[in-house]
Design goal:
Elements (H helix, E strand, L loop, with lengths): L1 H18 L1 H16 L6 H32 L2
Helix pairs in contact: 1-3, 2-3
């Protein structure tokens, strides 16, 4: 039963990451801009790329959560 809870937590984290992907991407792009002096014109491209990465992370978290839940239900 504990593993089912862990699976649901992973899915909730995925939903949070998916919903905040644009804000997180902009924040990370701003940090990279400040740290490495990339240039203001590239910030939107970097933010969009980072948002895409967060979508991929969300998909992986959902898949992992579903695998954990199904494995727990199948081993009962």
């Amino acid at each position: 039963m504990k593993r089912v809870g862990a699976g649901f937590v992973m899915i909730l984290l995925a939903v949070a990451a998916f919903r905040g992907r644009k804000v997180i991407g902009r924040f990370q792009a701003n940090v990279l801009l400040q740290a490495f002096d990339i240039g203001e014109d590239r910030q939107s491209e970097i933010a969009a790329g980072l948002a895409t990465v967060w979508v991929a992370v969300s998909v992986m978290l959902v898949a992992g959560g579903l695998v954990i839940i199904s494995a727990d239900l199948l081993t009962r």
